[in-house]
Amino acid sequence: MIMQTIFHPNMTNHIITFYHFPLSPPSRAALLFLKALGIKHSLKIVNLLSGEQNSSEFLKINPFHTVPAIDDGGFFVYDSSIIMKYLSKQYAKDDSLFPNDPKSGTLVEERMYFSSNYLFPKLREYFVPVLFENTQPSTEKAKHFEEYMKLLDQFLENEIWIAGKNLTMADFSIITIISTAEAIMFQINKYPNVAAWYKRAKEAMASFGYEEVNQAGADEFGNLFKSKLEQRA
């Protein structure tokens, strides 16, 4: 299924500044979401590997040193989940990406919480030592991540999307994690429900610039990870 851009900003000439690092899965999620909304933006790359997140200029935007972050006319927002909520409430033409209905909206938030507090932290615990601590991948940490992959597969049992019957911001949040995991050699096909959703979601997000925004960044991340492994072989 190929979806066209279906959400548009209230102010067609309005431009948001988006602070981004392509290797960051949360940053890719928020940027892909912004593109899905059709919001005009100015992209500023913050190179986390060279410490640009610690500059005095960036700390005025986000004192927590992380990407993504946005500057919406002097209103600063950081954390990918919060950015997506804000953009949906402020600029989406309807509430399908983040439902106003309490039960539907809560399900989306539950899945976002799962993404940001469980799934991604476990993946990060696996790759950070390889990238920055000169160690080999930990089998034990890989197993910890895969436990949450099994849970995600259960969430998707008889479901089309991550949180309900429609594509929501939860799908954007999780797809960048899954693509990064695949790029560092986790076998996504071990989880049939995840694999089927992954294929659907990539097709649905193609018109939002999925390949350019997310897949290219995931591939770059995978190449960096593999190069670290080769250096230690």
From TrEMBL:
Boundaries of every GST C-terminal domain copy: 101-221
Domain GST N-terminal: 14-95
Gene3D superfamilies: 1.20.1050.10, Glutaredoxin (3.40.30.10)
GO biological process, one term: glutathione metabolic process
Pfam families: GST_C_3, GST_N_3
InterPro entries: Glutathione-S-Trfase_C-like (IPR010987), Glutathione-S-Trfase_C_sf (IPR036282), Glutathione_S-Trfase (IPR040079), Glutathione_S-Trfase_N (IPR004045), GST_C (IPR004046), Thioredoxin-like_sf (IPR036249)
GO MF term list: glutathione transferase activity
Signal peptide, first to last residue: none
Top-rank lineage group of the source organism: Eukaryota
Subunit structure and binding partners: Homodimer.
Name of the protein this chain belongs to: Glutathione transferase
Organism: Henosepilachna vigintioctopunctata
